[in-house]
Design goal:
By secondary structure, the protein is an alpha+beta fold. It has 20 helices and 22 strands.
Length: 749
């Protein structure tokens, strides 16, 4: 028979003599007759009437319950009149056979491949028109076998070629993997070794070589990344390697840009050893900028480069964030440290670029900015830290340090004469004249800075724009990490354990006449030893060049308010407050307590004091609370400490008993006397019968003040209670710690 059979007629029609074998179309069922709508589509003439296959398409309607109450069964839904075929329609050319109203509510089951599904036939439009029946295609499996037999030679050759290429690619991949792994580890070690290099040209060349090497590694690694680390599929090891390689590559980009800036800066330096890059950064804050570099102009010229470095650091940190583990605890620890360092650098860069104009003003871009740095001794407490024994002053213009001076605090106070001012509350019996030595008296450093600035101008010095106060704790921490410092002129080694005792004792003893130091001045300040020590420490820090380590210590002390800063310029002051210069207690709306100690001891006994503040809180009605406060103070100086002080004095030829007794008292072997102010919420009231004074504060606080003393190697107790109404109605007490205070513990009950 032919491939296509069209128009298969009924047996009564003229062309019914043609032989049709139904088995060709329905191989699984032996048929003689196929009928549709009660009409025979075709039948097997040779076999005669046999099995009949009725392929009439019927529509079924399934309902859960009758629509109308009167209907009992589904047969009632069928309306014969509506769907009956009229007699006249038999003579029409477009004769339509009406079908039953049917809807199939469930999908039909799937048929097997190569079978004819007569259930899907559309209703016939005419009793004389039938669908064409086509010979079905050859099964896929048979076609595949035929194709394989036909092209078996080509397939065999292709298989050999494919296997050869696959083996070659595998070997190449292994070689590339080993290369990438080896070079990546090597470049990482080269980056880590940069911190030990000193020559700028050598560093620049090394960074350039590292960057080129990493670019080659990234190129070799590219195909692996494209196939195994994409948006559709991500292999963990390939993703890890991709983050490592591209993280270090972008980091090398940042280093190269940073070195470009450094090289450009070097070109600005005058020729000569005194103005080398290392000497510039090593001595900038100690002896001033002698290289005549307009730093602000240089920074403005390279602002775009700094922004690009900041952007690259962000990209590097993004890659590093995708590294969960390097598979080695040592590598993971180093990576974590690197991430923390980069986060710190980027945070500083981001903030600096966001406030670029303000920083330019701080550096004196358009006019000189006058600075004063107050070095406070926390062994003799004051409200903002400690006794302001020595002061550094300088100007910044175009980023250059000018007019750098160092003074004893009494250099200023002596020049106040004949001006006199009555001391504030608590200091009346301690001093007959108020001066810079006591002016860091106020709880808010901004108020202290204003008063110190007033005294500075009264003494005939230049008006101060920005004032910074630091405590010696920052020096102790630098010594702990980067010390000790050898003072060859004194045959001393100073570390974090003996700094306070040695420096204080030798300053008070004025030992420089015994060593005949050549300072080049006719007058030698009692603080000359301290200034010599600071020069030696600064030189040692410059040699170590751990810039980020120094910054971390500075930032930590700033955040703890061990470094205080204030400016007369409102815009710059706002900038400092955004950095976090404002202490938390100043804006507290809760149940807070802030004790402030001001030493009246005339000695360094705060070095040995141990204090514990216990606070018991009881909630009352209407957002009111009652606080009971107990302050325990222990004067913990020991005989061993006294012996060490005497030995130090003996080593410098001070053996007079009276002088040793006097200096021993100054170094802490005396009564610890304190003027203590407790800052509490505004409107707080003391319990009756207490020997404390109530004063109005200038801010959100009330002051309870008293005097307290502790004998050497003894203890003392101070107790009081008060009632306060808490603005935010939270009864839990917030306690704050004074800058500079040592060995202070708070216990809340």
């Amino acid at each position: 028979m032919t491939d296509t059979i069209n128009d298969i007629y009924l047996s009564e029609e003229p062309w019914a003599w043609r032989i049709i074998d139904a088995q060709e179309f329905f191989p699984k069922i032996r048929l003689d007759v196929v009928s549709h709508n009660n009409s025979r589509v075709f039948h097997d003439i040779r076999s005669g009437k046999g099995k009949v296959l009725n392929v009439t398409k019927k529509h079924l309607l399934t309902l859960k319950k009758p629509v109308r109450a009167g209907r009992k069964s589904l047969e009632d839904l069928f309306d014969k009149k509506k769907y009956a075929t009229s007699i006249l329609s038999l003579f029409s050319k477009q004769r339509i056979i009406r079908m039953n109203p049917v809807s199939i509510l469930e999908p039909l089951p799937k048929t097997r491949f190569n079978t004819l599904d007569v259930r899907l036939y559309e209703p016939l439009l005419s009793i004389r028109t039938f669908p064409d029946i086509y010979r079905l295609p050859i099964p896929l499996s048979r076609r595949a076998k035929k194709t394989l037999r036909k092209h078996r030679r080509r397939i065999a050759i292709g298989s050999v070629v494919f296997a050869s290429l696959s083996i070659s690619l595998i070997l190449l991949s292994l070689t590339a993997k080993n290369y990438v792994e080896r070079e990546t580890i090597r470049d990482y070690n080269r980056i880590a070794a940069l911190k030990d290099m000193r020559d700028m040209e050598a560093i620049s060349k090394e960074v350039h070589d590292i960057r080129n090497s990493l670019k080659t590694v990234a190129l070799v690694f590219g195909p692996f990344r494209a196939v195994l680390d994409n948006r559709f599929y991500r292999h963990p090891q390939i993703h890890l390697a991709s983050n490592v390689i591209h993280g270090w590559l972008t980091l090398s980009d940042s280093l190269e840009q940073l070195l470009f800036i450094a090289q450009e800066f070097t070109k600005e330096l005058p020729k000569g050893e005194v103005c080398s890059l290392s000497s510039f950064f090593g001595s900038w804050l100690v002896v001033g900028n002698k290289c005549d570099i307009k730093i602000t102009d240089f920074l403005k010229n390279h602002q775009i480069n700094l922004e690009q470095i900041n952007e690259n650091l962000g990209t590097t940190l993004g890659y590093y964030a995708g590294i969960e583990s390097l598979g080695n605890p040592l590598f993971d620890e180093k990576l974590e440290k690197n991430i923390l360092s980069l986060l710190g650098i980027r945070e500083i860069l981001t903030f600096s670029l966001a406030h670029f104009d303000t920083i330019m003003s701080l550096l004196g871009d358009t006019k000189p900015e006058q600075y004063m740095l107050i070095n406070q001794n926390q062994d003799e407490l004051r409200a903002n830290g400690g006794f302001p024994g020595s002061i550094l002053s300088f100007e910044l213009y175009k980023g250059q340090v000018q007019n750098f001076e160092k003074h004893d605090v009494y250099d200023y106070d002596w020049k106040l004469y004949p001006y006199k001012e009555q001391p504030p509350s608590g200091l009346e019996g301690y001093s007959g004249n108020f001066g810079i030595r006591d002016a860091n008296y106020y709880p808010d450093f901004r108020d202290s800075a204003k008063k110190i600035g007033f005294f500075v101008e009264k003494a005939g010095f230049k008006s101060v724009d920005t004032m910074i106060a630091i405590n010696q704790g920052i020096i102790i921490e630098l010594l702990k990490k980067y010390g000790p410092v050898k003072m060859d002129a004194y045959d001393l080694t100073i570390d974090h354990t003996n700094f306070s005792r040695i420096v204080s004792t030798l300053v008070e003893a004025r030992v420089f006449p015994y060593k005949k130091l050549d300072t080049g001045h006719s007058y030698q300040s009692p603080k000359e030893f301290l200034f010599r020590f600071m020069e030696a420490l600064s030189k040692q820090l410059a040699e170590k060049r751990d810039i980020f380590g120094y910054l971390n210590i500075l930032v930590d002390h700033f955040q703890k308010h061990e470094i205080l800063i204030a400016s007369k310029n409102t815009e710059i002051q706002s900038f400092f407050e955004q950095l976090g210069s404002k202490e938390s207690w100043q804006e507290s709306q809760g149940n807070f307590l802030y004790p402030i100690f001001t030493s009246l001891s005339a000695n360094k006994s705060d070095r040995y004091m141990h204090r514990k503040l216990s606070i018991k809180t009881e909630s009352l009605s209407g957002c009111s609370v009652h606080n009971f406060v107990r302050l325990n103070s222990d004067h913990a100086i020991t005989i061993d400490e006294q012996i060490r002080t005497r030995k130090l004095l003996h080593d410098f030829g001070i053996d007079d008993p009276a002088e040793q007794e006097r200096l021993g008292f100054i170094e802490g072997n005396g009564v610890n006397k304190q003027y203590i102010r407790f800052l509490v919420p505004k409107g707080s009231t003391l319990d009756s019968g207490l020997d404390l004074k109530t004063e109005a504060g200038t801010g959100n606080y009330t002051i309870f003040s008293t005097f307290h003393r502790t004998e050497p190697m003894k203890s003392s107790v101070l107790e009081f209670g008060y009632t306060t109404k808490v603005p935010n109605c939270v009864s839990e007490v917030e306690s704050y710690v004074q800058p500079g205070i040592l060995n202070f513990k708070v216990v809340k009950q």
